[in-house]
Amino acid sequence: MIEAAGVCKSFGDVHALNGVDIEVARGKVLGLLGHNGAGKTTLVNILSTVSPPTAGTVRVAGYDVTTQGAAVRARIGVTGQFASVDEYLSGYGNLVLIARLLGAGRRQAAARATELLELFRLTEAAKQPSRTYSGGMRRRLDLAASLVGRPDVLFLDEPTTGLDPTTRIALWETVEGLVADGTTVLLTTQYLDEADRLADWITVLSKGRVIASGTSGRLKAELGSRAVHAALTPDSDLSAATGALAAAGFQPRPDPERHALSTPVDTSADIAAVVRALDTVGAELVELTVKEPSLDDVYLALTQSPTALAGAA
Amino acid sequence: MALQERTRDTAPIAVPDTTAEWRGGSIRAQLWVLTGRQIRSMYGDTRLALFSLLQPLIMLLLLSEIFGSMANRDDFPHGVRYIDYLVPALLVTTGIGSAQGAGVGLVKDMDNGIVARFRVLPTRLPLVLVARSLADLLRVFTELLVLLACGTVFFGFRPSGGVLGTAAALLLTVFVIWSLIWCFIALAAWLRSVEVMSSIAVLVMFPLMFASSAFVPLKGLPEWLQVVAKVNPVTYAVDGSRRLALGWDLGLGVVGALGTSAVLLALAGFVAAKCFQRAPNA
Predict the structure, then answer these.
(1) Which of A19, A243, B83, B272 is most buried (CB neighbours < 10 A)?
(2) Any idea what the CATH number is for the domain that residue A284 is in?
(3) The domain that contains A33 carries what CATH number?
(4) What are A123-151's pLDDT values in tens digits?
């Protein structure tokens, strides 16, 4: 449903995107990760026909964004970081306006608006001007607004930035429901747990290039690290413990302030080896934890040295 | 890339056309809906609507008092009362004052999230501007009607052109003002800043209004101002409106006003549509 090849975008001398390729199949969710300025919003703007690409070809829902913009716009929904609704109109008024612009008749528009307000728990505030809505309500209205035309492709540009945890989870559940109904989603986010939960496939963007892509599990396996963290009793010798682990072939990082150390491990056997090595120098453990690889590790590993790991894609 | 392999397995899938009837409304339907929205938001603030109606009344009162003695001067057209001379011109200058509100209004509208939404809907973007201009025109038209009514009731406005002449003057003014509304819309689409818009509006408005035959006959102006007034489109508009209301022979005033406005309208419309198409930061 989304096919982009060699997409470049330059603003004068600034190259916001440098040859980005992405493909998303129908009913799938692509998570686009990246820092501020990585080019996520620029890419969403191009895919949603708001700004033309400097180079490259982009097809969304089967239509070319540059030459068939109106056909693309009739099949997409966009929810950005800022609520794109009329602050002076009510929630109901906004949804009716959008439905009418899409070509719905008066009655159809009213029915669709009512249906969406119900779905997003906005019925009570339906007749109030949207400027009086709370942040969460606005975001829900914005998402409802992007769903009026039952889009084939939904772009969610940092949809949960600034939302409270309950609202975030509710929004995730809504998105999962849409995907189950066959909607294709492109999600940009800075929150790795969000990408982890929603995305079938993750693409990491840095300085306008794709530096890695894969399933969440594969990225974690390839780039994330499992680590053992051991906190010692005050009378245990931290430097002796560190030495013992080094001698056993680990790369321990001592943390004198907390009287603790941590070391990357691969297998369960490694975890046992860590405990045995600590035992040989008589280190008493207060706490031993194993941290499973997270997308955060992947993200940090990639964005700290993007060129070194470019092959990981 | 692995992703490409994967998608090739599943594509192509025929997309069921669930909302075949909702792929973008007709031009007429979209214009209707957009104009309705614009009018509703304009009268959403009743205080604003009230004050914008009061403004022409204050101008009427002040100007008829300040320049009233003009009618006694030799270079003033004989047999014409100052109020009958003033009101047709006041139609134009009041309209100009309101036209600049269209520019500020558009900039504020562009900050409103809904315009960002319009960009990702199958909305024809120039229609957003046409809707804006029509709603502003309705506002100006209402103000001018109030001005005419008050002029007639409280100030004894009885132009020799009668009701027909006055109606023609009103229509001419409305057309001229529409072209000016488009100029301010074009400026707004290009500049996109309320502050810059407001200062330009003042910069443009006052010389346009006062370096013209709006309040005093051209001959009453200093020579250098006469030159400015002669190239000022407001002079033509005022002259046309006045000739119609007073039932004078039309001369070049009406044609000149219609011609300059039509050219201005075409140019400003083109520039506005072009500038507005460009998304912010794109």
Answers:
(1) B272
(2) 3.30.70.100
(3) 3.40.50.300
(4) 999 999 998 998 888 888 999 999 999 99
Q: Indicate whether A21 belongs to any domain.
A: yes
**Nearest residue to A84 (alpha-carbon basis) of A162, A138, A149:** A138
| Substitution target from A63, A102, A148 for chain B, most B beta carbons within 10 A | A102
| Pairs of CB atoms within 8 A across A/B | 135
Give the phi and the psi of residue A154 in degrees, each rounded to 5. Answer: -120, 125
User: Is B204 inside a domain boundary?
Assistant: yes
- B6: in domain: no
Strand locations in chain A (E): 2-11, 14-24, 29-33, 55-60, 63-64, 76-79, 153-157, 184-189, 201-206, 209-214, 226-232, 253-255, 260-265, 285-291
Residue A296: pLDDT over 80? no
Strands of the A253-255 sheet, one edge to the other: A253-255, A260-265, A226-232, A285-291
Structural domain including A260 reads 226-292
Closest CA to A48 of B2, B275, B93, B121: B121
Q: pLDDT tens across A174-212, in order?
A: 899 999 989 999 999 888 788 888 999 999 888 888 988
If phi > 0 it is left, if psi is from -120 to 50 it is alpha, else beta; for residue B193 that is: beta
Total domains present in chain B: 1
Both A121 and A254 in one domain: the answer is no
Alpha carbons within 13 angstroms on the beta-carbon side of residue A70 total 12
What's the rounded Cα separation, in Å, for the pair B234 and A80? 45
Are B33 and A100 within 8 A, CB to CB? yes
The amino acid that residue A210 corresponds to is V
**DSSP label at B218?**
G
Which candidate from A23, A86, A146 shows the least CB-CB separation from B3?
A23
Note whether A198 and A175 are within 8 A (CB).
yes
DSSP code of residue A213: E
Across residues A226-252, what is the average pLDDT?
Answer: 87
Q: How many CB atoms lie within 10 A of CB A263?
A: 21
Is B40–A48 a contact, with Cβ atoms under 8 angstroms apart? no
The mean pLDDT of chain B is 83
ipTM of the complex: 0.78
Q: Sign of dihedral through CA atoms B195, B198, B202, B203?
A: positive
